Amino acid sequence: MSFITLVRHGQANSSARDEDSYDRLSDLGWQQARWLGGYFQQTGEKFARAYCGTLRRHVETLEGIAPDSLAAPVQDARLNELAYFDMAQLMQAQHGIAIPGDREEFIQHLPQLLAHWRDGDIQNAPESWTSFESRVTDALTEIAAGEGRAIVVTSGGLIGMAMRVILELEVKAMAHLCLAIENSSLHRIQPLSTGLAMTQFNSLPHLDTPERQHARSHL
């Protein structure tokens, strides 16, 4: 069965307020990735193919999971995250909507940003909503057509868009799912003759013990 396991990257620099500063794993993010790799080894999980985006946090997470036991990874820019910080700055300048300063503000902000982006109300956005949706769909469709199980390390926004496409979600529902996605979490897609099916969401088996509960993170 040639299913895809999507992995959100480990915790990045959560104090950042721009794309470049955010794009590196924290010490906790490295630990999350190593624990996930240990879980795969313990359970005998094998992947014939490995993919990740070209962002530093994607590459580092894949390195932390299993640098020696995975197939040579393919870096694909189509698996990169949406440019949240860039669009948040544009939305603030164009619509007066402040960039969030904490998680509670982020919960309110993300649905607004996605809706403005979808409606074309963020001028000079790094890419269009349609382009993002298309590249996510194309990349996952191609990976699903390959032989053998695949692991794909990417970001929460891309996983959210994948779920929107597969489950035909409205933007508000997509935003709520994105907000729930935890660092280093697993999400499984199974190809069917009628299309792609989502069979697992936000699983954290490598952190599901009392002594590792502290290592769960969203940002």
From TrEMBL:
The keyword Hydrolase applies. The keyword Hydrolase applies. GO terms for molecular function: hydrolase activity. Gene3D superfamilies: Phosphoglycerate mutase-like (3.40.50.1240). InterPro entries: His_Pase_superF_clade-1, His_PPase_superfam, Mito_Ser/Thr_phosphatase. Keywords: Hydrolase. It holds the Pfam family His_Phos_1. Coiled coil: none annotated. This is Broad specificity phosphatase PhoE. The lineage of its organism: Bacteria, Pseudomonadati, Pseudomonadota, Alphaproteobacteria, Rhodobacterales.
